[in-house]
């Protein structure tokens, strides 16, 4: 007796490229729950590593974060040119997602939900029965159509002890480098993330978050006043915390009008 086609078909293999470890864990867990047959054979934290993994593992699917260090997900998709199916991981706004839908490009919206991810999985399952498409032309059309610019970070997954808390950026008063981690400070609590201050400067809205020291980024809405001591050094007094944040000389120009 012959087996059904589904039983004979090998389990699909995927790589997951996402530079935020907690986010990668969340996506991987959801994929495992909703698509148990899918094998995530490797994970990458940047675009160059993702390219290497695609070359070495030859997966059926590549889940690619749009915003990754070294190479973006779009850069990677252009370079693999049809070697595997692609689903982007994105924080794009509603209009850009409409452009993705029109371009027949699969995506996972951050933060991921089971309902939306199930739709992406169904589309990917149907496409696995066909050769992978070279997305270069579709990506050119999407970028020409716009708006293609990703939104700035809207939320942060931060560790607090054994718990992981989802914190919106509006709640965050400041970020401060703390050895290998970055401290995320709200009015009521502190938590840790693995993103560096350098990463955050390119991912946060610059009209809302200002770097005031090589180790500190502050939410401008959290500033109560600017204090200058007898030596001319500046520090920031916050509305909801007692500590004061020093402003290094390189960033004092931001406060000349205050």
Report on the architecture of this protein.
It is built from 8 helices and 15 strands. Helix content is 30%, strand content 31%. By secondary structure, it is of the alpha/beta class. A 5-stranded parallel β-sheet has the order 2-1-3-4-5, with helices on both faces. The N and C termini lie far apart (81 Å).
Short overview:
This protein is elongated.
What would the keywords be for this entry?
258 residues; alpha/beta; Rossmann fold; OB fold (Dihydrolipoamide Acetyltransferase, E2P); five-stranded parallel beta sheet; five-stranded antiparallel beta sheet; 15 strands; elongated
Number of helices: 8
Secondary-structure content class: alpha/beta
Give the CATH superfamily of the largest domain.
Answer: Response regulator
CATH architecture of the largest domain: 3-Layer(aba) Sandwich
Question: Could you give the order of the helices and strands?
Answer: HEHEHEHEHEHHEEEEEHEEEEE
The spatial strand order of the largest sheet comes to 2-1-3-4-5
CATH topology of the largest domain: Rossmann fold
Residues in helix, %: 25-40%
Low-pLDDT windows of residues: none
Question: What are the SSEs and their pairings?
Answer:
Elements: H1 5-8, E1 13-17, H2 21-34, E2 39-44, H3 47-57, E3 61-65, H4 73-80, E4 85-90, H5 94-102, E5 106-109, H6 114-127, H7 136-145, E6 155-160, E7 163-168, E8 172-178, E9 181-186, E10 190-193, H8 197-203, E11 209-213, E12 216-219, E13 223-228, E14 234-238, E15 244-247
Parallel strand pairs: 1-2, 1-3, 3-4, 4-5
Antiparallel strand pairs: 6-7, 8-9, 8-12, 9-10, 11-12, 13-14, 14-15
Helix pairs in contact: 3-4
């Amino acid at each position: 007796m012959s087996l059904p086609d589904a039983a004979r078909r090998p389990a699909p293999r995927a790589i997951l490229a996402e530079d935020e470890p907690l986010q990668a864990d969340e996506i991987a867990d959801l994929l495992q729950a909703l698509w148990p047959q899918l094998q995530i054979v490797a994970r990458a934290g940047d675009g160059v590593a993702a390219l290497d993994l695609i070359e070495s593992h030859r997966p059926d699917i590549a889940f690619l974060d749009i915003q990754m260090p070294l190479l973006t997900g779009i850069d990677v998709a252009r370079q693999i040119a049809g070697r595997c199916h692609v689903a982007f991981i994105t924080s794009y706004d509603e209009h850009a997602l409409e452009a993705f839908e029109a371009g027949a490009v699969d995506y996972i919206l951050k933060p991921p939900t089971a309902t939306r991810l199930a739709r992406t999985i169904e589309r990917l399952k149907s496409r696995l029965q066909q050769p992978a498409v070279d997305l270069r032309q579709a990506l050119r059309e999407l970028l020409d159509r716009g708006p293609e610019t990703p939104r700035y970070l809207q939320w942060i997954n931060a560790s607090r002890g054994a718990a992981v808390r989802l914190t919106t950026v509006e709640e965050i008063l400041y970020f401060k480098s703390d050895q290998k981690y970055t401290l995320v400070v709200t009015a009521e609590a502190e938590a840790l993330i693995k993103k560096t201050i350098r990463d955050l400067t390119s991912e946060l809205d610059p009209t809302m978050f200002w770097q005031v020291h090589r180790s500190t980024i502050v939410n401008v809405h959290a500033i109560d006043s600017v204090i200058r001591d007898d030596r001319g050094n500046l520090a920031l007094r916050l509305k909801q915390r007692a500590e004061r944040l020093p402003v290094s000389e390189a960033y004092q120009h931001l406060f000349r009008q205050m």
